[in-house]
Amino acid sequence: MPRGVEAMSCQRILIAIALLMQPALSFGEGGHKTFDLAEFQFEDGTTVPKTFLTYVTHGELNRSKSNLVLLPSWYSGDHHGYDYLIGRNKALDPKKYFIVATDMFANGLSSSPSNTPPPYDGPRFPQVSIRDNVYAANRLLTEEFGVEHIKAVIGFSMGAQQALQWAVSFPESVDFVVAYCGNAKEYPFGIVRLEGAKSALMADSAWMDGDYGKQPPEKGLRALARHWAAWGVSQEWWRRETFRTTGASSIEESLRAGETYWLSRDANDLLWQANAWQNHNVAETPGYGGDFEAALKSINARVLLMPSETDLYFPVEDALYEQKLIPGAKIERIPSIWGHDVVSDPAAIDFLNSKILAFLNNAQ
Amino acid sequence: MPRGVEAMSCQRILIAIALLMQPALSFGEGGHKTFDLAEFQFEDGTTVPKTFLTYVTHGELNRSKSNLVLLPSWYSGDHHGYDYLIGRNKALDPKKYFIVATDMFANGLSSSPSNTPPPYDGPRFPQVSIRDNVYAANRLLTEEFGVEHIKAVIGFSMGAQQALQWAVSFPESVDFVVAYCGNAKEYPFGIVRLEGAKSALMADSAWMDGDYGKQPPEKGLRALARHWAAWGVSQEWWRRETFRTTGASSIEESLRAGETYWLSRDANDLLWQANAWQNHNVAETPGYGGDFEAALKSINARVLLMPSETDLYFPVEDALYEQKLIPGAKIERIPSIWGHDVVSDPAAIDFLNSKILAFLNNAQ
Questions:
Q1: How many domains does chain B have?
Q2: Of B92, B120, B118, which is closest to residue B105 (Cα–Cα)?
Q3: Which of A150, B72, B76, B172 qualifies as a FRET site for A307, CA 20 to 30 Å off?
Q4: Contact with chain B for residue A201, Cβ under 8 A
Q5: pLDDT digits (tens, 9 = 90+) for B73-94
Q6: Do the beta carbons of residue A105 and residue A139 sit within 8 Å?
Q7: Is the dihedral of CA A236, A241, A247, A253 positive or negative?
C-alpha cells in the first residue's frame, strides 16, 4: 500500500480497505526502527526486563542538534500517523527538521501486551501511563541521538496528551508544543466515554479476561467499532451522510468498514492504550502532588492548543480551560464537521499545516 | 416508593436507589390500567392475537370530550415518566385536562418481548414501529374513551417521535404537539449511536440471541449502562462533576448506579425499543412514499419543538431543520447542561412547564 494511504487516518483508511478488499490494514509497515529500552520501570511499579520503542525518522539531525521534532503516536495509530504534516510546504519540512515519530507502548509495535513474552504477556503487561511514554521517548532521544533539548513536540489526541506531559515533565527541554484534539488530563466525561468502549469489548466472554490467545474476541471488537463510530465524528457529519465521501454508500457499509479497522488491532493493546488515555493527568507528575493548575503553570514552552470545533471527545471548552492555566498559550479552533477525526478531513489538514507552520516560524 | 420519586427520571432515580439500597426500581408501579387491544397487526406484518396497552389517567374527560392530552412513554420509561408536568401551576392541570399516559410496546408493561407468551415471546416478538404505538394508542382513545380528536400530544425523546408521528398520521385529530428532545425521524448519527448500545449488549454471549430465559445477560447490560452514561448528559455536566448533586461521590459510583438502573430492565425489551427508535421516520407513513418534507408539511397541528442545548442524542440543528419543514412550528431551546437527560434537571423542568403551559394557552 502506498505511503500516502498509510498517512490517512482511520475513517479513510478503513473505507479504502473495504473498497480494495484487502485483508488487513498495513499497520506498522513503512520501515520502522527499534530502540532497545532494555529494562524499563513503568509508573505502576512493574519493571519489565526487555522493552523497546519503535519509530521512524524523517530528515537529518543538524550539527547543533537543535532541530528535532517529536511526534508521539495516538490511540490505535502508529508512527505514520502524522505523515500529512511532513513535507515541503507542510508544517514540517524534513529539509529543516529532524522528525522522530514514535509508537506508544501498547500500540502493538512498541512493547505491548500483544508482543511481550511471559511473564508480562497479554493481560499481565503493566499498566502504561502517558508519562511512561514520555520518559521512554526521552531515552530514545538522549541515548540514540544525543539530543537533550527538542525544538517541538506535536501531538494529536493521545499524542497531544504526551505533548503536554512533555512540557510539564521537561519544562526546560522543549521550545514549542502543539496539542490538537487532546488535553492535559482526561476529564470525567472522557473517562466515562472510554468506560463504554472498554465495557463493550469486555462484554464478550471470548475476551477471557485477556487470555484469548489466537482467538480474538471478535464480537467485542465489533461492538467497540460501533461504539467509536458515533463518537469519532460529529452529529452533523452523519446527518450530511459524509461517509459517502469516503466511498461507503450506506450507514451499514460505513460501520462494517469500521469493524474491519478495529478487528485488525489486538484487543488487549486497545484496552491498555485506553487505560493510559483514561488515567492521564499532568497533575500526577512527580513534584506536583495532584495540583493540576501548578503543573500547567510550570510550562515554559510556547504552547498552541487546537481543539476541533465538533470534537465529541475533547470539547473546545476543555481547551479553553487549559489555555487559561498555561502561560501564554495560544488557541486555534479547527473548523470541521469531522469531530475528533479531523485528520481525515483534507480541509482540516490544510488548516493544521498552515497554523502549525506559522506557529513554529512566528511564535513570539 | 412515593409518587414524587417515581416521577423523576433515570439519573436521579438510579442514584436514589443506590443510596436507599433498594433492590430494584419501582418500575411500573402506580396503579396502571390495561387496555385489551386483542389482535394487533404490527407494521412488520406480524399479527399477534393477544396484545394490550397499559396506561394511567389523571383528571376527568369533559362532556365535549375535548380535553384529552396524550403522553406517550420514552425509552426505558413508563407511564409515570411525565409526572413532573402534571399538577396545579404545571403545564398540565388535571382539573383542566384529561391526561392519558401510555406505555410503549416493548417497554415491559404494554405487550413486550418479556411478557408475551409463545410463539411471540422474547426474540420472536415482532419488530415494533413508532407508528404501531401511535395506532395502538389511538385505539385506546377511540374505543375506551370515545375520543376522536385530542387536545394535545406531548412527548420526550421516543415520546417526541410518537408525538410528531401522531401529527402526521392524524393531521385533523390533534390541536397541539410538543416534541422535546426528539425528532420526526432518526438521523444517521442516532442510528449509529444506537448500534453502539445494541452491540455492547449483544456482545455478551449470555444474551443467547435473545433466548436467555431467566439468566439475563448481565455483562451486556452493564456495558449498555456504561455506553449510555457518557451519551446521556453533556461533557460539561461531567467536567463539573454534576453527579455529586445526585448523591454519587465518584465517577465509579455514578456508573454503578447507572448499571443498577439498566439491570432492572429486560434486555430484549431494551433492544426492541431501540430498534423502534432507530428505524423511525415519519416519511414512511402510508401515503408519503418516503417523502420526509411532504410528511412534515402535511401537519396541521400547532407544533412546539424543544431541543436541549446540550443534547448529544438530538442536537439542536436537527430540530431547526425540522422546524423549517413543519408549517408554523415554534422552537424553544432548553438551557441546561444535562444533555438529553434534561428531565433530571429541576431548572429544565421548570422551563418545560412554563413554556408548555404558555404554548397550550396562548398559541395563535
A1: 1
A2: B120
A3: A150
A4: yes
A5: 999 999 999 999 999 999 999 9
A6: no
A7: positive
